[in-house]
Amino acid sequence: MTATIYDTPDEALDGVSDGARVMVGGFVSASSPTNLIFALKRRGTRNLTVMATNIGFGDRLDELCEDRQIAKAIASFAVRASSARASRFEEQYRTGEVELELVPQGTLAERIRAGGAGIGGFLTRTGVGTQVAEGKDVLSWQGEEWLLERPLRADVAILKAHRADRLGNLCYRMAGRNFNAVMATAADLVVVEVEEIVETGELAPNEIHTPAVYVDRIVRCDPVEVRWDGR
Amino acid sequence: MAAEHKPRLTRELVAMRVAQELAPGSTVNLGVGMPTLVAAFAPPDANILLQSENGILGYGGFSEEAYDQDLVNAGGQPITLNPGASFFDSAASFAMIRGGHIDTAVLGGLQVSERGDLANWSVPERGGGSIGGAMDLAVGARRLIVAMEHTTKDGRPRILRECTYPLTARGCVDLIVTDLAVVEVGPEGLMLREVAPGWAPGEVVTLTDAPLTVPRGVPEMEL
Q1: Which of B21, B53, B194, B203 is flagged as catalytic?
Q2: Is the ipTM of this complex over 0.90?
């Protein structure tokens, strides 16, 4: 099915309702879907569960905490070891207003990959013997202990790519593939902001990073500057 | 002069000593903090391939050019690319890490136990902390070097019989490089391999909680 092209990021999020589980692509500054984050803020969608590698490290996802739109985050970077430069998310986490599931980054990526690939779970050594293992099944195999990790899926993924064609094929720029390319496979509705939309056929088949089958909606936006503020 | 007031290695000198451990042609992941500094001391002719968890293999140094927000390492610093560099997604990046394709990872540390358990992501009394890619690197890299300060700011040992902070992984550390010493983790426990210039093995033992085997003639680090 051909992707639908939207005029504005706000319209591209039509149908995303309160309580949605939202995957947010990007690695802090790299290929962050900041226009779609801003649109989510303007639309005032609430009680969100967000899944992202980071929240509150200079990314603009933290701004959804201004009006307390986030109920829960599933992330690998969310709270600093020092409270010297606390994000809004971190302040709300410390007062118990938001829930956090802290996930090792590789486990987060693989859970999303599993969710997108129809895999019901996987075994990993990451997290064995740590807090991450609490409440999870530990299996013995080949003389080692492994954690059983479950897949993650979302109602909607908001992503950023560099270019799209009208069919919905995506190309990323530099280190922009990160979580974007993985999350594109694991949500019921995949919404992508891109810097340029070209005619179908203009992207070379071998240069397409995310095939169009995964992409539902595209919106062209100028990228927003994002800067890390350290760890 | 009391041992605790003697000069210790700077972060740069610790990074310089760690860099000596990187085998030519090896693939290396550098964690944030002190490990990041190691990149500057890797010999340029050693053809070290640096991996960044956000999906980069073959980055060079830190970029002096205009900031490009799509080209940053896992610590958010703008970087350059070496010829032959490649990009990939986060699932592929951690498959690389968890699949044993990284020869050496260098991570920061808060505590290391005598069995090589590592705690490096959370200080309970301060609350919080984030796991990031540390747990994956700790179990996935073929060799794990921890670069850290030998003691806390108030002088308490960081090399302990048992870690008291939340663990990153059990039994994962191969070598500890601190501002006082190089300590190897082996099946028999911890072995003092080198001391910082001006430090005696006995002084390092005093500032280490875990039992430390001291062989004859422990040399000073060559920096």
Answers
A1: B53
A2: yes
